[in-house]
Structure formats: structure tokens, C-alpha cells
Design brief:
InterPro entries: ATP_syn_F0_a_bact/chloroplast, ATP_synth_F0_asu, ATP_synth_F0_asu_AS, F0_ATP_A_sf
Radius of gyration: 21 Å
Function: Key component of the proton channel; it plays a direct role in the translocation of protons across the membrane.
Protein name: ATP synthase subunit a
Largest sheet: 2 strands, antiparallel
Shape: globular
Family: Belongs to the ATPase A chain family.
Helix content: over 70%
GO biological process, one term: proton motive force-driven plasma membrane ATP synthesis
Number of helices: 8
């Protein structure tokens, strides 16, 4: 059984478990890195502050001042969650009776589409809050002329699709290749193990890099979409 129903909604067990595991790992890492904070950071605190500066830099490239400060925490949280989610399936994958119970949450299109929808909803909210309803609608959907309205609406859907599918496709493909290499390793005894093991290690290392890049790309595009809604039309 790979799903259950609650309040009329169907939930995927693997996604629920995987997200819960990701949140636990994320909380533990941030708690450990932020213990015993000092004015002169060193060790784990240095790494945490570098990561905060890194995500703040992504935001400041698109938005500065008060507008950018609203996005700092969101960008940081989003980056850490996606990075851990991307790596989870590489190191922990639990299956039983043909059902995956723990895998990378971002290897599921439901999760990536949900994150993309949250980002775009957040962008609309901040845009309306910044400009007011009339100016927001005018800047984003009725310019340079009213006839652009259908194209601008279609553009919203393409932003959602590209943001979600880019992350899903990269992480899902990585997990599939890891699984294929694992099956190949045990297909013909020691010969295939000797061949597959180095390939598995190389691919896992490359997948960690890809996972970090995809987290960066997702956060950067999220900030770009938010800035487009908040900044005045030129």
C-alpha cells in the first residue's frame, strides 16, 4: 500500500515519510550548527553564516533594501530544504514489497510542483502587498498593452512548469541511474560488482554536486519570479 486517505485527500506514504525525514535532518543540522553562537564565529558557525550570506547574496542580486530583507529567510530555508531533499535518496532509500518508503522528496513531481506553487503564490502575495491590486494587475498582465493578457497568463503557467519539472527531472534521473547501477552490480557476481562500484561512487559524488546546483537554480529562479512581481514595470 503506497498511499492513504485523510479528509478525502489521498497522500503518498513515501512522500510523507521522506519529507518528515528531511525536516528532521534539516532541524538537527541547523540546531547543531547554531549551538554556542559567538561574536567571532568559527567551525560550524562559520559554515552556517557563510550559507546565510550565500542565500542573502542571491536575494540582493535581484532585490535590495526592505524588499530583499523580506526574502532572506525564505531563500535560506528553501535552499537548505531542497539541498537535503536532493541528497536523501542517494544515501537512504528504503523499499518494501515494491514500494519506496524513503527517497528524495524532490524526485516526486507532486513535491516539486507544490514548492513551485508556494513560490509563485508568495510572489503574487508580495507583489500585491507592494503595489496594490490595481497597479499589480496593470504592471504584470496589461502591459505593454491589454492584448498581452492571454500571453502573460500563459507565461505564469510556463513558469510553474519549468520551475517544478527542472528540479524533478534532474533528481529523478539521478535516482534512477543509481538504482540501475546497484542492480547491475549484483547481476553477474564479482565481475559486475568490481565494475559498478567505482561507477556508483563517481555518480553519487556527481549527484551531490548536481543536487547543490539544482537547489541554487530553484532558489535563484524563485527570487527572480518574486522580484518581477514586486519591482515596477520599466
Amino acid at each position: 500500500m503506497g498511499s492513504f486517505k485523510f479528509l478525502g485527500l489521498t497522500f503518498n506514504i513515501a512522500n510523507v515519510i521522506s519529507i518528515t525525514v528531511t525536516f528532521i535532518i534539516m532541524a538537527l543540522i541547523l540546531i547543531i550548527f547554531s549551538r554556542n553562537l559567538k561574536e567571532r564565529p568559527k567551525g560550524l558557525q562559520n559554515a552556517l553564516e557563510w550559507l546565510i550570506d550565500f542565500t542573502n547574496g542571491i536575494v540582493k542580486d535581484q532585490l535590495s533594501g526592505d524588499e530583499g530583507s523580506r526574502l532572506g529567510l525564505y531563500a535560506f530555508t528553501l535552499f537548505v530544504f531542497i539541498f537535503i531533499s536532493n541528497q536523501l535518496g542517494l544515501f537512504i532509500e528504503i523499499s518494501a514489497h515494491g514500494v519506496d518508503y524513503v527517497h528524495s522528496p524532490t524526485a516526486s513531481p507532486i513535491i516539486t510542483f507544490t514548492m513551485a506553487m508556494i513560490t509563485l503564490a508568495f510572489a503574487h502575495y508580495l507583489g500585491v502587498k507592494q503595489k496594490g491590486y490595481k497597479k499589480y494587475l496593470s504592471d504584470n498582465y496589461l502591459k505593454p498593452f491589454i492584448a498581452m493578457l492571454p500571453i502573460n497568463i500563459i507565461d505564469e503557467f510556463t513558469n510553474l512548469l519549468t520551475l517544478a519539472l527542472r528540479l524533478y527531472g534532474n533528481i529523478y534521473a539521478g535516482e534512477v541511474l543509481v538504482e540501475l547501477l546497484a542492480k547491475m552490480a549484483f547481476s553477474h557476481g564479482w565481475i559486475t560488482i568490481a565494475v559498478s562500484l567505482p561507477l556508483e561512487m563517481i555518480w553519487q559524488g556527481f549527484s551531490v554536486f548536481i543536487g547543490a546546483i539544482q537547489a541554487y537554480v530553484f532558489v535563484t529562479l524563485s527570487v527572480v519570479y518574486v522580484s518581477q512581481k514586486m519591482l515596477p514595470e520599466e
